[in-house]
Design brief:
Blueprint (H helix, E strand, L loop, with lengths): L2 H11 L9 E5 L5 H16 L5 E5 L2 H8 L12 E4 L2 E4 L4 H18 L11 E4 L18 E5 L4 E3 L4 E3 L7 H10 L18 H10 L1 H13 L12 E2 L30
Parallel strand pairs: 1-2, 5-6
Antiparallel strand pairs: 3-4, 3-9, 6-7, 7-8
């Protein structure tokens, strides 16, 4: 549901790119309101333009963060920040695998009528909206039956190797121009509202334009602060300053992306 992946959806539906079978979106329980609004628009576009079928699968990272972070019950951690004396570090990211990759893999198997523990005999192309300027985000699939396809970079990647394919080879600005040339609205950068991989500008826009989303992020930030039940001694924060999110003087001009995002959120 991000800029590149949604453009890929349009282009495949319009046969500018090869036609895919299905689009899958994993909703983690607190996607940005702007993203969910765009999803409604995209579904209407799909109906009137014979677009690729859109499957939405529901997971609930948001609920688990609020309910399980204070207990000994296991849950997948998000890459939040913690501080030991003067050194800032991040928790290991586990959320992508549990709440995005595994549910999408299960959805693919269900569509093909293959049980989760059955051997997959079909090779599946999983298309990912990574553009040329983000080529370093390409990744090898973890299983034999998947091939990661990157139409905007021009490569297909299996578990063992990679090879060039025919593609459009576009960077993010090229894709944004394509939206404009085709009179299509450009989606916002897609992420959970509480994702730590956000610049101050992104936090500021969220707070100004979608206060309910920002309030949900603050709720998560304050809930995960004390995770001693999980064996984490130092306080946990969503903001890289290791200060409470509600107290940060956010700068809407500081648009520096912090951290290293991968393609596995399919955004």
């Amino acid at each position: 549901m991000g800029v590149q992946s949604t453009a890929m959806y349009y282009m495949s539906s319009m046969h500018i790119l090869p036609h895919c079978d299905v689009a899958i979106f994993a909703d983690t329980g607190r996607e940005k309101t702007a993203t969910l609004e765009y999803l409604k628009y995209l579904k209407k576009w799909q109906e009137t333009n014979n677009g690729i079928p859109i499957h939405v699968i529901q997971t609930n990272l948001y609920r688990d963060l609020l309910q399980k972070s204070q207990t000994k019950e296991r849950f997948a951690k998000i890459p939040a920040f913690t501080k030991n004396e003067d050194r800032v570090g991040m928790l290991q990211r586990q959320c992508t695998g549990k709440y995005k990759i595994i549910p999408i893999d299960k959805a693919i198997r269900k569509l093909l009528g293959v049980g989760y523990k059955e051997k997959m005999k079909t090779n599946v192309e999983v298309w990912k909206g990574i553009s040329l300027d983000e080529h370093m985000r390409m990744s090898y699939p973890s299983v034999e039956w998947k091939t990661h396809v990157y139409p905007f970079v021009g490569y297909a990647v299996t578990k063992k190797d990679f090879h060039k394919i025919e593609g459009l080879r576009m960077n993010r600005s090229d894709i944004q121009k394509w939206y404009q040339d085709n009179n299509l609205p450009i989606p916002v950068k897609s992420s959970c509202v509480f994702c730590p991989y956000q610049s101050d500008a992104a936090w500021a826009r969220l707070k100004k334009d979608y206060p309910e989303d920002f309030a949900a992020a603050v709720e998560v930030d304050e809930t995960i602060r004390n995770m001693t039940q999980k064996g984490i001694i130092n306080p946990i924060y969503l903001h890289r300053s290791c200060k409470p999110l509600r107290e940060i003087p956010l700068d809407a001009q500081l648009d520096l992306w912090h951290g290293e995002c991968t393609d596995n959120c399919h955004i």
